[in-house]
Specification:
- There is one protein chain.
- The chain is α/β, with parallel strands linked by helices and 418 residues long.
- The protein has one domain (45-330, 373-405): TIM Barrel.
- The protein contains 20 helices and nine strands.
- It has helices spanning 9-19, 23-39, 48-55, 73-86, 98-103, 108-122, 139-144, 146-163, 183-186, 188-204, 227-240, 276-290, 305-308, 310-313, 323-331, 337-351, 361-368, 372-375, 377-381, 385-405; strands at 42-45, 64-68, 93-97, 126-136, 167-171, 212-216, 250-253, 295-297, 318-321.
- The chain has an eight-stranded parallel β-barrel with strand order 2-3-4-5-6-7-8-9, surrounded by six helices.
- It is globular and about 55 Å long.
Length: 418
Amino acid sequence: MQVRETPNEIDSLVEEAVFASDNQAKEKSQRTIRELALARGIYPASMQGLYEAAGRGLYSGITVPAINIRGITYHVARSVFRAALKDRVGAFIFEIARSEVGYTGQRPGEYAACVLAAAVKEGFKGPVFIQGDHFQVNAGKYASEPEKELNAIKDLTREAVDAGFFNIDIDASTIVDLERPTLEEQQEKNCQVTADMTEFIRSIEPEGIPISIGGEIGEVGKKNSTVEDLRAFMSGYLRLLGPGLKGISKISVQTGTTHGGVVLPDGSIASVKIDFNALEELSRLAREEYGMGGAVQHGASTLPDEAFDRFPQVGALEVHLATGFQNIIYDSPYFPNELLNEINSHLWEKYSSERKQDETEEQFLYKTRKKAFGDFKKEMWSLPEENLVGIMDALEERFSLIFRKLNVVNTGLDLAEA
């Protein structure tokens, strides 16, 4: 099939895929983008093979960055691909969490289309890894209506897989019950939901594409994970998993971080001490005893630069990054002050009920401004070109730094020949 486009057609297709007035027009543009990408050797792919290789000890010293893009997705993804092309990076993931799908107003089909269009625009070729991050169980909803909550996650998972998300992170760590007397009992519901979701994902995965599935034992921001926690979870999970089914390829753990960082009263981010020894031990155990690729670190984007050197050194398989990139956008001198003031006023008006009693204004705005990516989606997308260029140049520089520190340079295809 010959698919051609004029230089600016991909921009128009993305605009339609995101902002068309009806879903039928959006879906048509999203399909066209997928066709254009495939015609240029760009295709959604699974990390399963790479992570199985890590589990067999065939490579080490590499930590795959998983990048959450909350807004201006097409433009931000283009800056990721530009950074990747400079250093021939292939091992990196684009992801969006279940919660982000909601508050940023990005369904999986739209998100995947933006990423694939960015690859087309920048001349990237080869596999593109798109991930459902924190497809998370809401503990309150699960307690009252467990079947309804799990069906909602399954519906989102099916939608994501249909869009080309061939990497799915199940997060039932929210229903771990630390009040129960034994570790096995604490992890019981987590094991059951993760096993059930694994079986569901295997039943819907495309033929010939084994989806990379992640599990999670420690809720981010809560109690640090231990080797004993991992063994208790895997014992229950493997016992419940159907015979002959491929299990999870990685395990997310808690080692001291919080999503978005800990915000101080002045709006700055507190220093965080990650337990790298625990991360190293959990990664080693995941590989040597269970054949997984290793452990996954969440909530890392606001860490100091020197921390990123440690992740490959301790064998972390994957690290998830989000808020730091959001901060680059909002704090950029190229982000219009008028729009920022309008956003802040809107946040106060719409979300003031979410402000905690002891929160300062700075803390409230910092924790809430992620929601403006959905509420001001069109305004951010429509920033003047010079503003977008300034913001995206800073992001590209940051992505390049992270790629180098996580040691994923030269992990891509031979792009000169592709």
